[in-house]
């Protein structure tokens, strides 16, 4: 058994690396599936009350997580009704979506 321990460990490691790389390469799919479409619905119900989607779409890929956090905090001060959990989820969604993401831009 010990003879096969190293090759099996290496194969498991390689599979893990490939799976991680595949998931990491498509943040839009990761965001959409990890939140169960919550990003799209939250943007459609909360953000579009005050903004056209094109405004949000134009900002994708240009802001860091910190800047999205600041923007969302400012929106809450302006009257956006977002719980702390909603705010965190939106920061995570918007900061990981690539420019032109279908979730927001289409």
Molecular structure report:
- This protein is mainly alpha-helical and 106 residues long.
- The chain has one domain.
- The protein contains seven helices and no strands.
- It has helices spanning 2-24, 27-34, 38-47, 53-59, 65-77, 84-96, 102-105.
- It starts with a helix and ends with a helix.
- Mean pLDDT is 78; it is low at 19-36.
Low-pLDDT ranges:
19-36
General shape: elongated
Identify the quaternary structure here: single chain
Strand % is under 5%
Class by alpha and beta content: mainly alpha
Number of helices: 7
The major beta sheet can be summarized as: none
Q: State the domain count.
A: 1
- Helix % is over 70%
Q: Tally of extended strands?
A: 0
Distance between the termini: 54 Å
SSE topology string: HHHHHHH
- Average the pLDDT over all residues and give the rounded result: 78
Using only C-alpha atoms, the radius of gyration works out to 18 Å
């Amino acid at each position: 058994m010990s003879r096969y321990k190293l090759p099996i460990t290496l194969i498991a490691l390689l599979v893990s690396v490939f799976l991680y790389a595949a998931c990491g390469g498509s943040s839009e799919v990761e965001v959409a599936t990890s939140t169960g479409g919550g990003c799209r619905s939250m943007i459609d119900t909360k953000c579009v009350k005050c903004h056209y989607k094109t405004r949000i779409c134009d900002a994708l890929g240009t802001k860091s997580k910190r800047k999205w956090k600041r923007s969302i905090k400012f929106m809450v001060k302006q009257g956006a009704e977002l719980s702390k959990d909603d705010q965190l989820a939106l920061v995570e969604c918007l900061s990981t979506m690539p420019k032109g993401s279908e979730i927001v831009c289409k």
